[in-house]
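Standup notes
- DV: blocked on the single-chain target, sequence here:
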Amino acid sequence: MDFTLTSEQEMIKKAISRFAREEVAPGAVERDRTKAFPLKIMKQLGDLGMMGLPFPEEYGGAGSDTLSFAIVTEELSKACGSTGITYSAHISLGGAPIHMFGTKAQKERYLPPICSGTSLGAFGLTEPNAGSDAAGTKTTAVTDDSTYVINGNKCFITNASFAKFLAITAITGDEKKHKKISSIIVPTDSAGFKIVDEYEKMGLHASDTTELILENVRVNKANLLGKEGEGFKQFLQTLSGGRIGIGAMAVGIAQGAFEKALQYSKERQQFGKKLSAFQAIQFKLADMAMKIELARTMVYKAAWLKDQGKPFSKEASMCKLFASQICMEITNEAVQIHGGYGYMREYEVERMMRDAKLLEIGEGTSEIQRLIIAREIGCQ
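- DV (later): unblocked, structure below
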């Protein structure tokens, strides 16, 4: 495996790093405080050609790769976790299912708005009683001539308030005799479709997290993604790709917290010398740097495998699990190094610590990742 980035990847990294530093980071504290969605930033990313980064050029994308997507997600998350998760979900949960499973007609209709950023990407999977057990879906789509009539609830859905359409999972077969989960593209302005934005979250305050209520929502059967009954397989593949995004997010947030802690340790004086001169602090920072580099390598490997068309489910779960755990650990250490100031919003590491926790939960909890890894290594 060659760890050297291509000239295109280097160019993307340099451009997005500068953009994140100049356009994303300055407003991160205020967005967290006011819960203001980074819509302007998303539009700017669209202008930069980043919103359709890994999708084909024929649909308005940039024709790039998963590794480039991971690089962009990391850099954005380093500056602002809310911006990072908005972007990651847009690509990996919103655009990816349509790209992977949609017909040519569906791609021609739905991918261009995704690639331009005029519609943000979202995916309606999680339900009040179907989180880790996503196969426990209760939302139904009953056939009525040429339409599906959809009823059900979805929760914790990212970006839905800014999506013109999204794929949702629903039962299309007889639940008692033959439960078939399918994916259906649903316009968010459909009659009976309601988006509720009332969650009070621990972190990622500037990201959009909503509940979806579907009451007799009618959708043409042409909006079926793939074939009936393929929804379970589809969302497993979608989540595997999404875990690379979560891993990249975790690396970015951890890197941001590490850099804040390193900078503070060089400036803060205690007992007549800088914090960075104390061996205890040096060891903390060394361990933080090592774990971030390991996590980044794991994310890059999972992305590389996906780009090579090789199996990557195990590596995606590994990178997501490890990166999210070290992110939580590193943000905690960053707060500790800052002491009392780390508890204050203006120093930003407390926000990073709050944002980090979701990464151990979203796209499959740490416990679910261990089950996947155990299955992949032959334990089951």
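- Follow-up: The chain has three domains: 7-116, 123-228, 233-377.
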